[in-house]
Queue: 2 jobs
Job 1
Amino acid sequence: MKFSKRIADVPPSATFRYASLAKREGIINLTIGRPGFDPPSVVIEAAKRALEGGKHHYGPSKGIPELREKISERLTRENKIRGIDSEKVIVSMGAKNILYEIIMTLVDRGTKVAIPDPAWVSYESMVKLAEGEVVWLPLNSERGFVPDEEFIDALDHSEAKIVIINTPNNPTGAVYPERVLRDIIAVAEANDMWIISDECYESIVYEGKHFSIGSVYDKTITVGSFSKTYSMTGWRLGYAACPEFEVIDKMNILQQQSVSNPVTFAQYGALACFTPEAQKFSREMREELKRRRDYALKRVSEFACECMKPNGAFYIFPYFEGRDDIKMADAVLEEGVGVVPGSPFGKQGRGCIRLSYGSAKVEELAEAFDRMERVKGIA
Ligand SMILES: Cc1ncc(COP(=O)(O)O)c(C=O)c1O
């Protein structure tokens, strides 16, 4: 079989690969990009009621109106996103599918898309699948991977039609301050660029405040997810909102021709994410994740590495000068801990490893760090 050039050019996801290597008996798995909690019980109960109440069938392609209404209300009230209503919101199978639809909607062969380096692995692959061209914007570990003048300058000279911004960040855990985001917006505005603002981790901020780009810049497509905020990764629910209706409308064409609609009963369950009980769950989960972040940071600071404090998400991304990150991840796995090497996230990730504390309790983290200390050159 001769496969399409499109698929031949795209590697399998590195995070999936390292996650499957870490599934062996006895391995402490710090590769997982998810919080290890059950979703709020109100949400589970609501989904059960939906199933018992006959919500088994196809639904509207953009998502059920009740859920789009709730999302648009929250984005307007809390994120202060301007100019949206429920018609300017689309729900799909996770933020991943949403991002894929956005890129397929806006990117032609050769369209330039600016992506921070390092970044979540799928952005580059999605742009390649759309035959677009990636322009990398370098981030540096000594700046805690927060955009600096070099980044802003690279963006200004990128000739990109679109820039993807992700804060709080995967893989670095960085939370970009408002003033940095305003600098990015100024460059985007001057160059008539669209911003895809991936805000999947918006609820997991320990220090500082989350700032939504769409609150001040209308050429923004805001992306959100139920996956991390409510620990619902398997429910596959994410969304996009944009003041320009046509963007959402065109994404909806892709949706109709691919997945048809997001899972109906899951959406009825997700309606309960807007209750006080679910909000409390999300706050408590953040508190627990903060305890883990504090512990992991303390232990990482004993390593021979450079690591700024990550203020959000649930990743730590230490940099080991002069080290080969792939060999380091393999050596760490030999000692019984699964981590993801930094280079699949981009050139600037070389020498780094990504540790996820989302699914490991403090006791497991303690054992994982004890094991990692045995790896030559890390401690
Ligand atoms: C930065 C980022 N964006 C998007 C996603 C996709 O999330 P989901 O498809 O589960 O909503 C992830 C998942 O790991 C992520 O880390």
Job 2
Amino acid sequence: MKRIDIDSELCSRCGLCEKSCPVGAITLHDGLPAVEASCTLCGACADLCPEGAIAVDRSQAETTQAGHKGIWVFVEREEHDELTSVSAEILCEARRLSRRTGDDVTAVFCGAGGAELRGSLECCGADNLFLLENAQLEVYNTELYTEALVNLIARHRPQIVLFGGTSTGRDLAPRVAARLRTGLTADCTALDIDAEGNLVQIRPTYGGEILAHIICPHRRPQMATIRPGVMKGTGEAPRKTRIQVFDSDLISVRVRTRILEEIKELSRFSRLSEADVIVSGGKGMGSAENFKFLEELADVLGGAVGASRSAVDEGWMTHHHQVGQTGKTVSPKLYIACGISGALQHLMGMQDSKRIIAINRDAGAPIFKVADLGIVGDLFEIVPKITGLLRENKGVLSSR
Ligand SMILES: Cc1cc2nc3c(=O)[nH]c(=O)nc-3n(C[C@H](O)[C@H](O)[C@H](O)COP(=O)(O)OP(=O)(O)OC[C@H]3O[C@@H](n4cnc5c(N)ncnc54)[C@H](O)[C@@H]3O)c2cc1C
């Protein structure tokens, strides 16, 4: 049965359909489009056709899912050549899911030197490492990475593709999903497989009031970004990871952005997504200089420094440090909120922290509702005291 119909009378032979196809399933013969078997019935060509000459029978779309296999994880690397913690967390979760679906777990890495990650990938239970090696992929670029990944996905047809909720993952995943005409759930905190074999993508919504369970039953691959720090690996038995190297034809990609300069974040206190401890300051800090009290406390605890939007709007900290709805979502082992009232938009970014300590001089501040430990008082007295006590007892604490 024909699943896609092209009316040659209406077709103006403009060729837009060929360019729009994310999986390269349309070729022009004497200007007229011909559709190949790799067509996923995404409908991109029909949506773009100016003459309305293309009709897609989407009721057949489900049958295109049959050939989709494998769980892919887009992995990222730290500056010092290690796998990022969120990549490791997602790989272990993918391994767990694979026990239900019977799929292979594949790590996908773009750029040079990915083979060095093999040891870490084996520990996380990855069956395969797909390396997209191309000089143009050495530095992250949205358009080039999208093209490379979309081509690889179209060729290998994975069932599930997962990304870390990092700045790269949050930039890349929506674009790849849009090109493949599939769904994407952002910022998942848990994953599951339902009775029909769909990926259940679980994420807090309405300010954390409810957990939404989202499925993508009619499109493949199923895609999600995963909040860093929420999925803890279960200690996988190491596997042998097979490496396959792919080159990508990126010559035709129109690159509209260019990296002019890379400015390294100098402060060691800015790595919020990866930190086990975050000491955050709000409007109650009173000035940029006063954040030194929080840096001292973070230093003793080996943590990072966060900020509320009010503190960022005041110019006391850069947006890089902002926690909340329009900043970073974090879930460290310990979050210490100093001079932060606890507005809903701030809570959305930190309420999944394992332990929360709040310091505020207003006993009625809403932050105390989510805190495990609340200290009512002046932060300028309390924070230096805690820092001093921790310093004095550092030897005792670290020996425990
Ligand atoms: C669309 C939208 C998105 C937003 N996104 C974010 C976001 O991502 N992150 C975010 O944080 N906010 C966000 N906000 C803003 C949010 O609504 C609040 O305005 C903001 O979080 C308040 O910051 P704050 O708690 O630092 O300041 P305030 O609400 O002014 O609270 C300051 C607190 O400090 C206490 N305090 C003052 N001095 C001391 C002292 N010496 N010792 C102890 N306590 C003291 C006070 O009692 C008070 O509770 C957003 C708002 C909107 C509308």
